């Protein structure tokens, strides 16, 4: 069989780590992570330490990504809600907003210098509306959520992935890191 001569096609090589529109910039749309695993860690702090170590060792860290696996939403309860706490919080947030509005009014006032009138009016109005909105919001919940909390997204483990061209070197460097004792100060 004789092969016919065809002109050679040039096919651009793309990297899964690069955005085709803007090289070196992460993609705007959610995309699954790619690369070879070079380390796996129980905490984000450990994964960050590994990437910091790679950076110190002049490893091309632009080829690396930290991927949280087995994501969980953790809601930590910070305290019980009471009417006094709700009203104090509402008054405080309203006071800050009212103070801000009052200062803005003095900036655009035709009177020279800072006048106390607009600031005091904004502060009192802000406290009043802060109290009203906090009371209405808490009262409408009717005791269904009588606690304060803070939410955080955490992972079960953190994998460090690397572009295949550098994965072997990265794995070797992280193996050296694993042999070092962990210093709490570093």
From TrEMBL:
Regions of compositional bias (Pro residues) in chain numbering: 23-32
InterPro entries: GSP17M-like_dom
A Pfam family reported for this protein in Swiss-Prot or TrEMBL: YflT
Keyword terms: Membrane, Transmembrane, Transmembrane helix
Membrane-traversing stretches: 86-108, 120-141
Annotated General stress protein 17M-like domain residues: 38-111
Annotated spans, Disordered: 1-32
Superkingdom of the organism of origin: Bacteria
Protein name: General stress protein
């Amino acid at each position: 069989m004789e092969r016919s001569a065809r002109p050679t096609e040039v096919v651009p090589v793309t990297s899964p780590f690069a955005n085709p529109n803007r090289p070196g910039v992460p993609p705007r749309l959610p995309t699954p992570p790619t690369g070879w695993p070079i380390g796996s860690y129980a905490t984000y702090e450990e994964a960050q330490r590994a990437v910091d170590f790679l950076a110190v060792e002049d490893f091309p860290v632009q080829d690396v990504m930290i991927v949280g696996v087995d994501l969980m939403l953790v809601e930590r309860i910070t305290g019980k809600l009471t009417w006094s706490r709700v009203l104090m919080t509402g008054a405080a947030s309203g006071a800050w907003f009212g103070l801000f509005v009052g200062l803005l009014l003095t900036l655009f006032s035709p009177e020279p210098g800072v006048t106390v009138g607009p600031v005091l009016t904004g502060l009192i109005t802000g406290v009043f509306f802060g109290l009203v909105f906090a009371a209405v919001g808490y009262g409408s919940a009717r005791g269904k959520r009588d606690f304060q909390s803070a939410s955080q997204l955490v992972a079960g483990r953190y994998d460090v992935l690397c572009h295949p061209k550098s994965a072997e070197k990265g794995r070797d460097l992280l193996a050296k890191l694993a042999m070092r004792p962990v210093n709490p100060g570093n």
